[in-house]
Amino acid sequence: GGSRQAKSDTPGGDREFDRLSRQARSAFDLGQISRAIAGYEKALARAMISDDHDAIVDTHYNLGVCHLRQGDFTAALKNANMAQKELQAAGRPVSADFLLLQAAAL
Question: By CB distance 3.0 to 4.6 Å, which of 2, 18, 67, 80 could disulfide with 101?
Fold first, then answer.
């Protein structure tokens, strides 16, 4: 899969975010995409609470990949766009993997 794994950048790390992300990645690797989506959605909520930009970006990307795998191009594009907006708000460049995800979802 095309997963990105951000480690939480909050002081001491967010172990719950890390645990949720690992579980979601494991589900993805096993082909359990619906379970992976549910896990990444929980991880995203966790990242948003702590305002962890890297985790938010990577989790939106991972959700986009999951939705793409399920054939839900609208949800894939929505997540890719959300990741891109987060990067732009932080003044960071948008990498090629996000552009490829967007292109694949169109």
Answer: 80
